[in-house]
Amino acid sequence: MPDQEPEEPVFGLSKADGATPATPGFRFAAIGALLIVVLFAGYGLGRLNSGTGAPAAATPQSTPSASPFDESQPHTHGVTAPVGAGGTGAPVGGLSLSGGGLTVTPLTTLFEAGKPQKLEFTISGPGGAPITTYSVVHEKQLHLIVARRDLTGFQHLHPVMAPDGTWSVDLTLAEPGVHRMFADFTALVGGVEIAATLGHDLTVAGAYTPVTVPDPVRSATTGDFTVGYEGTPATESTQPLLMTVTDGAGRPVTPEPYLGAYGHLVVLRQGDLGYVHVHPEKQPVDGKVKFWLAAPSRGTYRMFFDFQVAGKVSTAAWTVVVS
């Protein structure tokens, strides 16, 4: 007896089951109907997941903010904790070229003394690609501080970012020696704000003559102004520092708002150049600009106070010894 071809299943039935063989047209129609049912079922599940059912998880988003901290409370730039949190003094930044998954990379680190030169650098993320989104903090996306390692030649600059994430600024380093750049910013990575201060050395060739840090004083002169401060920084607690500005005739002058504040205070630690950037209370107190500071550790520091009068920015500097 000749071999018989196996029965062709038709949705679980075969000729041997007594079912009437399905025609090709019927089979195609049945398959089409099944596909329609599956599609409608998937659409219904999608509606349940994104409509009247449980809401879908939202993509994290962040709107650039004026400042990550309340200006009336002690805080610093480039860190994620308030000044003096836990009674351990202010956290310092700028000691490393990387942190929080971010890395600063200058295109060149060699400069000629006294010659204007463009400083270009990128801030890259964990995957190595340049970051291109930043929060605006005190009216700028990034604050750049530059100082020589003997705590001279202080500059507070604001680079401009190109669409590809490359920052650039004209920079003149007057004297030979090793200088430190501090990139102070709040990056937006995956919709999350990451406050950081990253540092990198810049080298100026030539005969290096270090300058001795001036003795501690309470008053400093810059241009036509005399600036004094009250208060004593300590490590175990946050202390107030009040800055008073007087003109050439000795008359008190109230600084104008500059970059969203009545002043900016940068503190650099001698030895490793540990960096702290502090902002004052929202309003002056009796014409004085009031900061709050917990010194990072015992040691010698230089404090640099940026303020603006009649549209011109000046910088006063003091040496402070915290014991």
What are the low-pLDDT stretches, counting only 5+ consecutive residues below 50?
1-69, 71-75, 79-85
How are the strands of the largest sheet arranged? 1-2-4-8-7
Topology as a string of helices (H) and strands (E): HEEEEEEEEEEEEEEEEEEE
Derived structural class: mainly beta
Instruction: Give the overall average pLDDT.
Output: 81
Helix content class = under 10%
Any idea what the shape is?
globular
* Count of helix runs: 1
* β-strand amount: 35-45%
Description of the structure:
Helix content is 8%, strand content 37%. The protein is mostly beta strands and 323 residues long. It has a five-stranded antiparallel sheet, with no helix packed on it. Strand 15 and strand 16 form a beta hairpin. The longest helix has 27 residues, at 24-50. It is globular and about 50 Å long.
Annotation keywords:
five-stranded antiparallel beta sheet; single chain; 323 residues; mainly beta; disordered N terminus; five-stranded mixed beta sheet; globular; 1 helix
